[in-house]
Design goal:
- By secondary structure, the chain is α/β, with parallel strands linked by helices.
- It contains 11 helices and 10 strands.
- Strand 1, helix 1 and strand 2 form a beta-alpha-beta unit.
- Helix 4 runs parallel beside helix 6.
- The longest helix has 26 residues.
- It is elongated.
- The chain starts with a strand and ends with a strand.
- About 35% of the residues are buried.
Length: about 300
């Protein structure tokens, strides 16, 4: 891992906000800021069988405009204060392949990118850059949303210490360690949130289908709540996180997390992405994918080694 923050600049995804956030991160980690303008527009001209003077002029004007954009962003984020900044342009199509190739080359501490609302059709096809990066990028992926960012941010770490595919809680530890480190560098506050599914709905279904069987819903709910809480408290104690910043709420994460983030006025939510088999990647199962459009604040997606 290099001491570099890679910022993906896309003209339709709040480039000023992305550059500012990436610069904020780079300064906290004493890192170099790398601004990569991702613009596949030139690939259309280069891939065309028709090569003309007019096409060359258009390509030249696009390159000039790209250089001007990057120069303006460098001036914006430096603003008289010391910050090492590098710039480049990626014309790769699809865009995510160029981004992942550059991330593989420089191994940045964070990849920072803007995001926008995705339509139902976009979510169904899984062909867009955000989804591909969530599923395939092996570096911490920071999505920027245009919202007010406080000097001392509130950071929510969404953990699941009972996840059956992460029995050693390796991913939760990465989430908490990244959040605690970031809070320490920024003077922010870290809060843990764990959501758990109640069995009330299951019990109601069982009663309907198997009337002779009595389902002890209340007792099962209590046991599940206590088991989850014990593991959550153990994780919090390991990292000395005070009880007032440890929260456990019933419900689906995709529904509870956005509401909790708003109620806590969170600036950043940190989530984990587990490695998946190639076939499983085709199904919408990632909580990060489900909440990306519904969180008002920035989202940081991290992975455990392997």
């Amino acid at each position: 891992m290099s001491d570099t923050v890679l910022a993906i600049i896309e003209l339709g995804h709040d480039p000023d906000a992305v550059a500012r956030r990436a610069a904020w991160i780079a300064r906290r980690y004493d890192a170099t800021l790398f601004l990569l303008l991702s613009d596949p527009s030139l690939s259309i001209l280069r891939d065309s069988f028709i090569v003309s003077n007019q096409a060359q002029e258009v390509a030249g004007s696009i390159e000039t405009a790209q250089e001007a954009i990057l120069t303006g962003l460098v001036d914006l984020v430096t603003d008289g204060s010391p910050l090492e900044v590098e710039t480049d342009v990626s014309h790769d199509r699809p865009a995510h392949e160029g981004i992942m190739a550059r991330a593989l080359e420089i191994e940045p501490r964070f990849v920072v990118k803007g995001t926008r609302y995705h339509s139902a059709a976009e979510r169904a096809t899984f062909a867009y850059t955000d989804w591909q990066l969530i599923r395939n990028l092996d570096r911490p992926l920071w999505f920027v949303k245009p919202h007010g960012w406080r000097e001392k941010p509130v950071i929510v770490a969404a953990v699941d210490p009972t996840h059956q595919h992460d029995r050693e809680a390796a991913l939760d530890r990465v989430i908490v360690e990244v959040g605690r480190d970031l809070a320490g560098r920024s003077g922010g506050r870290l809060k843990l949130l764990h959501t758990y599914q109640r069995v009330a709905e299951v019990g109601a279904w069982a009663k309907l289908e198997f009337k002779p069987v009595r389902v002890p819903v209340a007792d099962l709910d209590r046991k599940i709540r206590e088991e989850h809480r014990n593991k959550l408290d153990s994780l919090a104690a390991e990292y000395e996180i005070p009880d007032k910043d440890v929260h456990q709420l019933p419900g689906r994460t995709s529904e509870v997390l956005p509401a909790f983030a708003r109620e806590q006025k969170a600036d950043l939510v940190i989530m984990g992405a587990l490695a998946r088999a190639s076939l499983a990647r085709r199904a919408l199962g990632s909580t990060a994918e489900q909440v990306l459009d519904h969180l008002h604040c920035d989202i940081l997606v991290v992975r455990a080694d392997g």
